[in-house]
Amino acid sequence: MFRLAAGQVGEIASISGDPSQVHRLHELGMYQGIKVTMVRSGTPCVIRLAGHKLCFRQNDGLEIQVNPLAGG
Amino acid sequence: MSSGEQTLVPSQTITIALLGNPNTGKSTLFNALADVRQHVGNYPGVTVEKKIGHVVLDGQRFALVDLPGTYSLAPRSPDEMVTVDVLLGRQTDVAAPDVILCVVDASKLERNLYLVSQAIELGVPTLVVLNKMDLAAEHGIELDIALLQKRLGVPVIPLQADRRIGLESLKQELSQVDGQTMPASDIPFPDAFREEVTRLQNDLQDASSEIEPTATVPRYLVERLLLDQAGYVEQAGLPGVTEAVLEQVGEARARLATAGFPVPAVEAKARYQWVSQVLDGAIVSQFTDRITLTDRLDHVLMHRVWGTAIFVAVMVVVFQSIFAWALPVMDLIEEGIGWLSESVSAVMAEGALRSLLADGVLAGVGSVLVFLPQILILFFFIALLEECGYMARAAYLMDRLMYRVGLSGKSFIPLLSSFACAVPGIMSTRVIEDRRDRLVTILVAPLMTCSARLPVYTLLIAAFIPDRRWLGGWLGLQGITMLAMYLLGMVTAVLAAWLFKRTLLRGQTPALIMELPHYRLPSLGTVVRRVCENGWAFISGAGTLILVVAILVWAAAYFPHPPELASQVRAGYAEQLAALEQRERGLQQQDDLSEDQRQAATDQLLEERAELRGEISAAVAAAYMEQSFLARAGHFIEPVVRPLGWDWRIGCAVIASFPAREVVVGTLGVIYHLGEGEDETSESLRETLRSATWPGTGRKVFNVPVALSLMVFYALCAQCAATLAIMRRETNGWGWPLFTFVYMTLLAYIGAFLTYQGGILLFGGSPVG
Lengths: 72, 769
What we know:
By secondary structure, chain A is mainly beta. Chain A has one helix spanning about 20-25; strands at about 10-15, 35-40, 45-50, 50-55, 60-70.
């Protein structure tokens, strides 16, 4: 996920790691199958999903797999 | 406990709980609904603010409970548990809610309905308020509200809280609340999950029936127990939650995982499935990928270079305003208090009561009020920046920097504010959700060089640091010393934060996950309200305590106050006074003087007399100070402060400055026979300090190492009752303020010790300059 370039769109394949962080992401609308757009890459990064923007920082306790989608 | 089935008598108060995501305009709605009378306090044992407002509609009384903004009802901490407990009627100091008013951002329906899906499971009648309808329209979102209402099974009211549009229909809906509006649809949790919840509920019942046969755990909390790995419900002390039951929870999770419904993903799946069922067809149209004003603004404001530059500019303005606007008002408050205490002294007879009023109570009130300008101005800016949505961007920009210290970008503004004053800085840490981050920020905030340290630095630097300049006057030793003091505080804060994060408040650095809200025009009403709330929070939460400390220190400096001491000191001046009177008589008898000469001689004598009077009253004050409990304390601690190069008088002034650092300047004035009313710019105080000697020797008390050691001590110590008092309020206990006092005093002592001993090695202990 953190390898997405700015402007690239991807679909969340899986979120794993620290359960409470995974849970938090779920609550904020980030879950398997949702489309995300990388707005600003780097650390912390800014992503857009379902009409709102989230800012978050990569950390060891969280693993997010994304399938990059063509275009976007 | 739920009052769903209870019939409502019109005279009874209906309790409404306001629930919603952050940035949904919940507080705006609260303020629009409730009248001015509000009850603000704390829930016991946690740091959550309890806010209750009142409103009367059609003769029916309503109590509005404002809950903290939250994305979900899955508690991870005691603070988050409060929200769930209030909603379930388990919080004993708040009436069980009759209605949950769920405020929803219409432009972000999908995520907001996640919370709604949890709220309707609580078994309490629910109303959904669709706020920010204008913003939704801007995003091209068109909603079929009738269909939404049918799908949800609860009343749905569109609203624009900031412009008070739709408020009337909400009020109407509220006055028709009959306790019957219950949701129509169920959350599509898989059957396997439901069975596990039922089984667990029975287990809990069995486990608790032996001890508390009547206690039951609401089904929603059983669900949470199963769903929230490492959640707070496990530790919340629910009846029946034993080690054995927790083991069963683990087994149930394992069974669910093998059945293809792993925890916690099963919750997200079920709830978002429900959300998409509810929204299917209810969202008539929606622009995707539309570039909004927020996007365009973010393009600049979040830019690594331009965004950072703008942020720095904003901070300069904020900071400058605190100094430019607050300092004159603070001076005014100090002058006003000074005038008041002089007036009190003028009309009252000399004695303990007069001194208590003038030097104890009024000085104490002054030391509370003097913080207000900075608090109000800082919170004006914080409220403004937060209301318009910029705060999250600031946290984004500063995150990289703060992450290196082990904190998040959200700690930046509280720490920066602490350069003006740690009190509003600590109050502003409420934006930091992570408990550990928030505590570390609170613990290191008092190390930042606040404006109260400036008088101490100014006095000592002007008196003892030689005015050497280089580079054509641009670079001066005095300026460098001041800068060094600022840097010392900052570097120590960084190191302390780093250390705390690795020892005391150890734990995985939490992922910074933060919503970036849409920009909007801040409403002046909300900003003003928040400024007032914070001002009041300080006065009510810390004011009394500061006052008490000020009066205690006054008492220590005043008592035992033997009445004969004044006449003894005066007797010592009797000869000088008599000599002066004799010269006056001599002048009257002389008749060979011209009118001008006589006038000049009289003036001269009057001046001398006034000077002598001043000297006598200063000597009396000093004599009383020397026999006071405070001085005894100073003598008592002298062996401890000797290695710092201090004499008992400095020790005494340091103790006296516990209510507020700047008091040390005035106390040094009294103790070194100068009378009160000396300030840091006074030439005579500087002179006196320079010439003070150790008793019985000609050795000077102050030299460069001593001055530096005192400055370093003040850079690092926690000599500020207001900071400790506000810390107690924000952490809801005495533990952390005590810890802060101990660790900072230790640091200050070690720092001062090293400075003095190092200075002696370098300068050889002789006065320099």
